[in-house]
Amino acid sequence: PLVLGIESSCDETGVGIVRGTTLLTNTVSSSMDEHVRFGGVIPEIASRAHLDAFVPTLEQALSDAGVALDDVDAIAVTSGPGLAGALMVGVCAAKALAVATGKPLYAINHLVAHVGVGLLDGAGGGRHNGTAPQLPENLGALLVSGGHTEILRINSITEDVQLLGSTIDDAAGEAYDKVARILGLGYPGGPAIDKVARTGNPKSIRFPRGLSQPKFMGTAEEPGRHRYDWSFSGLKTAVARCVEQFEARGEEIPVADIAAAFQEAVVDVISSKAVLACREHGIKDVLLGGGVAANSRLRELTGQRCASAGIRLHVPPLDLCTDNGAMVAALGAQLVMAGVEPSGIRFAPDSSMPVTSVSLPA
Ligand code: ATP
Ligand code: MG
Ligand code: FE
């Protein structure tokens, strides 16, 4: 099926088009530049930017893919979670298109779409390195984004997914953004830390790995309450203390070393707990997704640890990690192919849509 996907949950206006598991186009317009001076996304500015960007982004996507709106078999839109006003723009646009064209509309979970994008195949000349899994049973998904850090089990992507573990405080992307601010690296922090960390020594400082002590982990037989959970707020505080100590001593702050050591702590604990959860649930295939999945060290270390554990890790190309419309189209196409009923046009966007709900029922 030819599916058009619309994304507007945060500061990216995205329209993507897929045919089955083949990506035709992924067109994204970001209002990031307008938020930089505030050091974070301002919801009202993001909503207005979506209004301005939607029609040009849609037209660009259709022209890049060489398809007409009439050729499309279904429309998919992010209905949550995200910023309420931002979601509203994409949802209203999608409903209008669905009514005008008579096409079925699917209300899609943004978080499931972040990992579902890994089901696209080697579109555009092996962009996806040709390893899209044919939906193996007992599929795992590691979602590491700006607002979420979760390890999921997906028995069927069209049915409800199961949450195995998650962060109990900050999301990994949030920690990157906060630590970047502490280090004076600006916004968004993830890409900045990733870059500067390459010149630092990750072993120079040992930052805490949250919830890794035996009392939280327990054993395989008697798992602790937070065996597969993460915590990043203590790590953020440890970085702030570390910077203060250098300042108090009047020493120059070793930004690259701190960034590298912080990144190592995040990536170490994410990858080790994800692999543990997969091993203990017999999971052999894992989809990696979310904005932080663009992180070079997370991709490297998680890849190595999965390989040692005999787990196949499916990593999307960089431009499909952060928010985009192709991921929404990709998950929408899976639902169409599985014969799932469309959502109709009466649903409302849900800013706190739980990850366990893949799409909204009619
Ligand atoms: P959610 O998907 O949970 O609703 P979001 O949509 O705001 O949140 P994403 O777009 O998935 O988040 O990801 C944005 C986050 O990814 C930001 O926190 C950003 O700093 C982080 N990020 C992007 N690139 C990298 C990178 N190379 N290394 C680390 N973090 C990164
Ligand atoms: Mg964004
Ligand atoms: Fe996102």
UniProtKB/TrEMBL annotation:
Its EC number is 2.3.1.234. Substrate binds at L143, V144, S145, G146, G147, D177, G190, D194, N295. GO terms for molecular function: iron ion binding; tRNA N(6)-L-threonylcarbamoyladenine synthase activity. Keywords: Acyltransferase, Cytoplasm, Iron, Metal-binding, Transferase, tRNA processing. GO terms for cellular component: cytoplasm. Residues 23-329 form the Gcp-like domain. It holds the Pfam family TsaD. It comes from the Bacteria. Its cofactor is Fe(2+). GO terms for biological process: tRNA threonylcarbamoyladenosine modification. The keyword Transferase applies. Fe cation binds at H110, H114, D323. InterPro entries: ATPase_NBD, Gcp-like_dom, KAE1/TsaD, TsaD. It catalyses: L-threonylcarbamoyladenylate + adenosine(37) in tRNA = N(6)-L-threonylcarbamoyladenosine(37) in tRNA + AMP + H(+). Gene3D superfamilies: 3.30.420.40. Binds 1 Fe(2+) ion per subunit. It is found in: Cytoplasm. Belongs to the KAE1 / TsaD family. Required for the formation of a threonylcarbamoyl group on adenosine at position 37 (t(6)A37) in tRNAs that read codons beginning with adenine. Is involved in the transfer of the threonylcarbamoyl moiety of threonylcarbamoyl-AMP (TC-AMP) to the N6 group of A37, together with TsaE and TsaB. TsaD likely plays a direct catalytic role in this reaction. This is tRNA N6-adenosine threonylcarbamoyltransferase. It comes from Pseudarthrobacter oxydans.
